[in-house]
Design a protein that fits this description.
The protein has about 270 residues and is α/β, with parallel strands linked by helices. It contains 10 helices and 9 strands.
């Protein structure tokens, strides 16, 4: 077991389920003190009680869509806990609808949660890390942040936006000793497709075949925890087909455009 997280404090958003929950349990086993956030306090409490040492797990309920509230929340966290070594931006929502059928308010919701909420929390924590001349901002995006697929138009846009923001931020803060890392999952066995919003904003409430056959969340969390200890700016944790898509788009864009039309994304 890696001891690289002993004595560190890690703030994870989207920690009540899926990747966030699995990562919280993995990092807890490796010795980290955790700050767990999501909208669902009861679910966060269930995660805490699953941990062997719940006294090292603290709950910070928040709503990423209410991004104007995040600066005050972060200030309270810093007052209570003193320092944050890692901020893991994991919270977000997915999409299962064609662009033409997606209401504009749903597009805005996806961008507010996935992009604006992440940016707001990052900006709230960043001055603290710069003043300490250390810290790491880890943002979970998606392979869809590298290439778009059908029924993910605004989801892909939000993840592409995060890549642009975090790439620029990395270049701005390296002299201050702050590191910025992007983690790009492929399909992971979580409830993401169940909770994905459809065109009218309601949840899909259906498990996608590709998601059900994805990487188990605990296995993904182990790989992500290992990757966070390294200095690689961008990490892909995905299956062979998703990784192949990355290189086909880069080197054979016309072929990619033909192939992506046929992808079964549900």
């Amino acid at each position: 077991m890696s001891m690289g997280y002993q004595g560190t404090t890690i703030w994870i958003t989207g920690a009540s389920s899926g990747i966030g929950k699995a990562l919280a349990l993995e990092l807890h086993q490796r010795g980290a003190t955790l700050l767990l956030s999501s909208r669902k306090k009861e679910s966060l409490e269930a995660v805490r009680q699953t941990c062997a040492h719940p006294e090292r797990v603290h709950l910070v309920p928040l709503d990423l869509q209410d991004y104007t509230s995040l600066k005050n929340i972060a200030q309270g966290v810093l007052q209570d806990h003193g320092s944050i070594d890692y901020l893991v931006n994991n919270g977000g929502i997915s999409q299962r609808a064609y662009a033409v059928y997606t209401q504009l308010l749903v597009d805005a919701q996806i961008m507010d949660v996935n992009f604006m909420g992440t940016v707001a929390l990052t900006k709230a924590v960043l001055p603290h890390m710069q003043s300490r001349k250390q810290g790491k901002i880890v943002t979970v995006t998606s392979m869809v942040g590298k290439y778009g697929t059908p029924m993910r138009s605004s989801y892909a846009a939000s993840k592409h936006a995060l890549h642009g923001f975090m790439d620029a931020l990395r270049a701005e803060v390296w002299k201050a000793g702050v590191k910025v890392q992007l983690i790009c999952p492929g399909y992971v066995q979580t409830q993401i497709s169940m909770n994905a919003v459809t065109g009218d904003g309601s949840a899909q409430q259906q498990m996608d075949k590709a998601t059900a056959q994805g990487i188990p969340a605990d296995r993904f969390a182990r790989k992500m925890a290992d990757a966070m200890l390294r200095d690689r700016p961008e990490v892909y944790i995905c299956g062979a087909k998703e990784r192949a898509g990355l290189y086909i788009k880069r080197f054979f864009p016309r072929l990619f455009n033909k192939l992506v039309r046929k992808v079964n994304v549900t």
